[in-house]
Amino acid sequence: MRNALTAVAGVILFGAVWLSPSAVAQQAQTPAPGVQGGVQVGVPAGRDGTAPESFRGRGRNAGPPKPAPRNKDGRALLAGATPANKGVWLPGPVVPDPLGPSKELPFQPWARALFADRRTHQLEPHARCKPSGVARVFLTPYGVEITELADLKRVYIFDIGGPHTFRTIYVDGRAHPKELQPTYYGHSIGRWEGDTLVIDTVGFNESFWLDRGGLPSTEQLHTVERITRTNLTTLHYELMVDDPGAYTQPWNGKLDLIWEDNTELFEYVCQEQNYAHELMVGTGTKVDRSSPIIP
User: Fold this and answer.
1) Residue 12 contacts by C-beta under 8 Å, 6 or more apart in sequence?
2) Which residues contact 198 (CB under 8 A, 6 or more apart)?
3) What is the DSSP-derived secondary structure letter of residue 200?
4) Would you state the pLDDT for residue 28?
5) How far apart are CA 54 and CA 32, in angstroms?
6) Contact 104, 23 (CB under 8 A)
7) Environment class of residue 76 by beta-carbon count within 10 Å: exposed (0-12), middle (13-18) or buried (19+)?
8) How do residues 171-185 score in pLDDT, each as one tens digit?
9) How far apart are the first and last CA of the chain?
10) Please, are residues 70 and 82 in contact by the beta-carbon 8 Å criterion?
């Protein structure tokens, strides 16, 4: 398979350090296809980086951000202060590949060719109702909802705008099983380091993209994620990728998410009315969009 992939024409170079929120904002000034004024078409108000400034604690009259809510032990919570405080985490301005790597990502040759092919054809599994592990789950315009169940010692991350799936992070001190069936989300174990949830994950399959841009991975993928709520409205996310099957050395990325208050998980129909069903089931490589009639 790798020999075939290396024959793919074209190489697109991106790098190991993901864009900062300020760089994302600059990128949003130049709309891409499907984007109007830096805002993704079809994204509800407040989920496209245009939420009121007071929401993010950066408005003219908002003052400094309020501190993160904490549990009875003094640790910052990843959700609301009480079960009645609803909210989701959004990725900020949504443009294609908003947090894609810049230059010098340490691709294996076959992975570089595959990445270039994905950038050309844009046949992303997540857009065809498949789960996506690691950073990709945080990049949907509808965001994620994080739920902590202290009694069960588990943390759940719900993908709102995707295929009705969720991640489970075990924070009960267990180790990874010796034998794992590869899955989209892998097997995640977590631990708390102060206010930071550290998530160690192995056991991934190769059927998803690491980000919206098409970064590949193999079953050798090992990730370490660090999630820190720095204040009421900001969630800082850091990612370490170690995949010797696709990259020549480990690399890191990071992003910030913003809190949308008074919102919770809602019903989302993936590929409603079977739009682009040819792509979903793998029977075609493109869809004819010249007709106003949807088959």
Assistant:
1) 115, 116, 119
2) 190, 191, 192, 224, 225, 226
3) E
4) 33
5) 28
6) no
7) buried
8) 999 999 999 999 999
9) 34
10) no
**In which residue are the tokens 């841009």 written?**
213
Is residue 194's pLDDT more than 50? Answer: yes
3-state SS of the chain: helix, strand, coil percent to 5?
Answer: 15, 25, 60
The answer for residues whose C-beta is within 8 angstroms of residue 67's C-beta and 6 or more apart is 231, 232
Q: Average pLDDT over the chain, rounded to whole? A: 76
DSSP string, 38-64: TEETTPPTTSSS-S-HHHHT-STTT-S
Beta bridge mates, 226: 198, 238
What pLDDT is recorded for position 273? 60
Of 40-54, 55-69, 103-117, give the range with the top mean pLDDT: 103-117
Structure tokens at 208: 């998803």
Domain map (residue ranges) of the chain: 2-29+84-265
For residue 107, which of 212, 208, 215 has the smallest C-alpha distance?
215
Q: Which amino acid is at 176?
A: H
DSSP one-letter code for 149: E
Tokens of 135: 């950073």
pTM, 2 dp: 0.74
CA torsion sign for 198, 202, 203, 205 is: positive
Q: Tell the residue number behind the tokens 């990259």, with chain if given.
A: 247
Token pair of 168, please?
């489970």
Within 8 A by CB and 6+ apart from 34, the residues are: 40, 41, 96
DSSP-derived 3-state class of residue 157? strand
pLDDT 10s digits, 137-148? 998 888 899 999
CA dist 187 → 57, 99, 134, 256 (Å): 35, 24, 11, 24
Q: Which two tokens stand for residue 246?
A: 């696709």
Sorted by sequence, the CB contacts under 8 Å of residue 38 that are 6+ apart come out as 28, 29, 30, 31, 49, 93, 95
